[in-house]
Every structure is written in structure tokens, then in C-alpha cells.
Amino acid sequence: MTEKLTVSVIKKRRKTMAKTNEAAERYKTINRTSNAANIAYLILHLLYLVLFIIAKLDIMIYVTSAVIAVYLLFFLLIKYKKYYLYALMVGNEFFAFIILSSLMLGFSTGFHLFLIAFCVVSFFTTYFSKKKEVRGSYVWVFLSLLIYISLFILSELINPYYAIEKWLEMTLFIIHLIIAFAIISSFLAIFIKYASSLENRIMVDSRTDELTQIANRYGLSDYFEQEKNKNGKVLAMFDIDDFKGINDTYGHIAGDYVLKRIAEIVKATIEDAFICRYGGEEFIIVLDDNKTNSFYERLEAFRKSVSKETIEFEDMKINLTVTIGAVKYVDGMSLQKWTDLADEKLYEGKNSGKNKTVI
To answer: pTM value?
Structure first.
């Protein structure tokens, strides 16, 4: 009963595992990014504190000290995986700090540049959230734009609270310009890295047979295109003799188990070869022909291993054989032509008694 359950739910388990791996990778990226961002924000506010102490800006010193304490507490949110709450609180803190700093020190200090950078961060956060609702990012962008315009208008109407020296004004603007570019580029780089990893995983999955976990025919096409030196290669096509009878007698779950077991036998008996499930009960092996161990001997060793194997499934014992057709590669031959010739050899073996290798 255990074996039956294992085979019947294999696809569901693999899909669940894939989703689990994707979620783990996503949360790993979120955690790493959140920690790095919080450290960066903490260092930034420590830098502010130093500058404000030098310039003797009392109100900004008190405010920045309080903000530093808040960022230290934010590490607890990250530790307990409260990523959404963390992002929300950081955003609100920056909104408040940008507004206050711009009014206290002036628009020309460049605090408003963070508003542009954090528009990118808002979409980044949305992408990595569970719901992926982009509406929240648009709200964030609208608020950022509204605050930006409001600060600009206010800067034209009223003077800042502090009349700071030119060196501090220029220093703050340069710092904010650099950090704004750094935030945009770093968050986009993280996104590209994650997306590339996800694309590669999807590419691998699309080239892998779900049941047997060997390559499928798309994987075969990729292999053929990427293999530079095909001379000396042999393509062998085989299928399980009377496989329909196995399905009819023992059921399709047993048939799936047989296919999976055959793939394991191929990998165990023919090493250093490309193996794929071509479709149904048909498989393809691409191997080298060398003088010390000819391809025919290796294929025969596999065929004999299958014929000697008794596959146990639940309380049933299944014996089976395979027929193999093999063709050497000829320069300029297409993959379709190569597989067609191997298929002809396969059916030559089928029509002459089965359980043999025809070359």
C-alpha cells in the first residue's frame, strides 16, 4: 500500500516540493534584503547624527537619535519574519523623516530624492509579497509624488527652520543622490538575480520528465543543439516490450512505477550517457562509441539487466524486456533524421522477436 501511495501521489508531491523550494528561496531573498537594508538605513541615520551634531542642530539630533533606536527594534521584526510590517513601518518612517528634514533643513538638501528611490522599493516589496497586489505600489507612488510636489511648493513659499551652512547642504544633497541611485540599482540587481534563478529553475523543469526525473524530448533538443562534437555519438531508442499489457494487467500506477524503475536501471548500467524519456514507454540514450567498451556491449548490458530484473510492485512481480534500435551519427544529420533512423531499427527488432539490440 505504501508503494502505491508513493507512486500515485508523486506528481502532487513534486509540485508541492517545487512550491516549497520557491517559497524558501523567496523568503531567503526577503530576509537577506531586509537585513541588509536595515543595516544600511541604520548606518545612514548614524551618519546623519554625526553631521547634525557637528552642525549643532538640536531638534534633528533628538529626532535622529529616536529613529536610530527604532531601527534597532526593526531587527526584531525581521527576526520574527514580519516582513510586510517592517516594509510598511520603514516606508512611513522615511515619509515622516523626509518631510520633517526638508522643512527643517530645506528642499535643496535632497531628502526628497528618497521618494523616487522608494517607488522602486515599493514594487520590489509587492513582487515578493504573497498577494502581489500592485495597487498598493501605485498608492505608494501617488503619495510619494504628492509629498514631492508639496515639499517643492513649500520650499518656494517658506524658509527652512534652520539656515544651514553651504557645506552641509551640499554634503547632504550628494549623500542623498548617491544613496538614491544605490537603492534603485541594488534593488533592481536583487530582483534580476532572483528572477534569473527562477527562470533557470523553470527552464530545467520544462526539460525534465516529471515522472522519471530524466530529460524529456525538449531536453534532447537542447542537448543536440549544445553538443558541439556529435561524431562518434550513437543514438539508441528503446521501448518496453508489450507495455500496454503491463498497464492492462497491473494498472497504470504500476505502469508508472515500471517507467520510473527503467529510468533508474538505465542510469545505473550506462554511465556518462545522455538519457531521456522520449514519450510514453519510449526512451533515448545518446552515448559514445569507444574501442574499449563499444556502444553495442553497453546497450546489451542494459538490455540483459532489464530482462533479469524482477520489478516488485505491491504484492505483484513484474518481468519485462526492452528492444533497442541504435544508429551512429553521420555528419550533417538532423535530430529528426537521427531519431527516425533509430526508430526504424527499433521496429526492426520489434518485428523480429523483440528483446534484442539492432544496430
So the answer is: 0.63
Question: C-alpha 212: how far from its chain's center?
Answer: 21
From residue 262, alpha-carbon distances to 59, 138, 240, 243 in Å are: 75, 54, 9, 12
Question: pLDDT tens digits, residue range 289-303?
Answer: 875 568 899 999 999
Cross-strand bridge partners of residue 288:
233
Residue 3's pLDDT is what?
42
* End-to-end Cα distance, the chain: 42
pLDDT confidence band for 98 (50 / 70 / 90):
very high
Domain boundary among 206, 225, 254: 206
Per the structure, the complete domain to which residue 42 belongs is given by 2-206
DSSP annotation of 215 = B
Burial class (CB within 10 angstroms; exposed 0-12, middle 13-18, buried 19+) of 55: middle
Contact between 177 and 110 under an 8 Å Cβ cutoff? The reply is yes
Average pLDDT on 97-105 reads 96
* 329, 230 contact by CB (below 8 A): yes
Close Cβ partners of 147 (under 8 Å, ≥ 6 residues apart): 95, 98, 99, 112, 115
Burial of 191 (0-12, 13-18, 19+ CB in 10 A): middle
Same domain, 227 and 337: yes
Question: What's the grid cell of residue 62?
Answer: 533628538
92 shares a domain with 132: yes
Q: Whose grid coordinates read 526539460?
A: 207
pLDDT, tens digit, 9 for 90 and up, residues 188-209:
898 888 888 888 888 888 888 9
CB-based contact 118:126 (threshold 8 Å): no
Establish if 234 belongs to a structural domain.
Answer: yes
Residues 158 and 269 in one domain: no
Which of 321, 316, 323 has its CA nearest to residue 253? 316
Instruction: Tell me the backbone φ, ψ of residue 334, rounded to 5 degrees.
Output: -80, 160
- Interhelix angle 83-105/10-55, nearest 10 degrees: 20
